[in-house]
Write a structure and sequence with these properties.
2 domains; alpha+beta; Glutaredoxin; two-stranded antiparallel sheet; 37% helix; eight-stranded mixed beta sheet
Length: 211
Amino acid sequence: MNGVSLSNGARRGWLRGVSVALMMAIAPWLAGCERGGPKDALRGIDVTGAPYGKTLELTDQHGQRRTLQDFRGKVVMLYFGFVQCPDVCPTALARTVEVMQRLGPDAQRVQLLFVTVDPERDTPELLREYLAAFHPSFLGLTGTPQEIAAAAREFKVYYAKVPTGSGYTMDHSAQTYLIDPQGRLRIVLKHEQTADDYAHDIAWLLRESAG
């Protein structure tokens, strides 16, 4: 074999040197893990600093006016949907229940906000019944058609009324936004992602805010 042959002692010294060099190289990464982890460890899309998703003002199912300021100290999961959604919305809400279970005690620091894109049919009473079937902490937000449209524009959410034979349904975006405990939009998660992905990124935000 070509090259320099090392004695056992020299080889051990060389390995120790490599180990020290590797530890020095990954030390900043490890420090990042302690604070919440490097951003490339996120499962969702990092949108930190995005010029949108800064404000939200609607009314919850109990008649209380709500803004993002009300949830400081918590990670907000923001989702746009509608009660008569046949599969996507129920799947998203059921997954959120799984996420809360995975987070354990930290679930108390998470708030799901379900913004209806169908305020014509989704009355506060209907939102109360619908969301209570999933989790008692879930909040439904509604408002005038103009307020819903403004909220959707702020978060770049698409929705549209689609006529059917007996009435109409709603077509809409299905992503979930994560807003950190300081009220800043940070992460976008796709509908296709798992409860583990969601729980991972929420836990990341909670650790970051604690550090």
